[in-house]
Structure to design on (105 residues):
């Protein structure tokens, strides 16, 4: 509900939302997934998916879902399958498996 309310408020007042992360990422060319995907969002539904997909995958940055060269998206991320990462799974909020359309942004 908060997402919808925020989205409506921004739209009603002709405002834009810009995310500013407070942490500098250690790798050049890396970015937070939500920041990168937000630029492609065109609807409220996509905004919801942009927030849920990284939760399901337990990832924060683009470097978490690409190969070592940083140019190829890992198959698991592309298919919306949980990734085995260095992050402790218990520290992430639960996010149920998402439908295929969630991964189309």
């Amino acid at each position: 509900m908060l997402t919808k309310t925020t989205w409506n408020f921004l739209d009603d007042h002709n405002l834009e939302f810009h995310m500013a992360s407070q942490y500098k990422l250690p790798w050049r060319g890396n970015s937070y997934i939500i920041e990168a995907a937000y630029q492609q969002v065109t609807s409220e539904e996509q905004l919801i998916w942009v927030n849920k997909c990284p939760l399901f995958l337990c990832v924060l940055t683009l470097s978490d879902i690409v190969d070592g060269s940083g140019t190829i998206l890992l198959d698991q991320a592309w298919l919306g399958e949980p990734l085995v990462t260095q992050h402790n799974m218990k520290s992430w909020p639960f996010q149920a498996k998402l439908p295929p359309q969630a991964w189309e942004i």
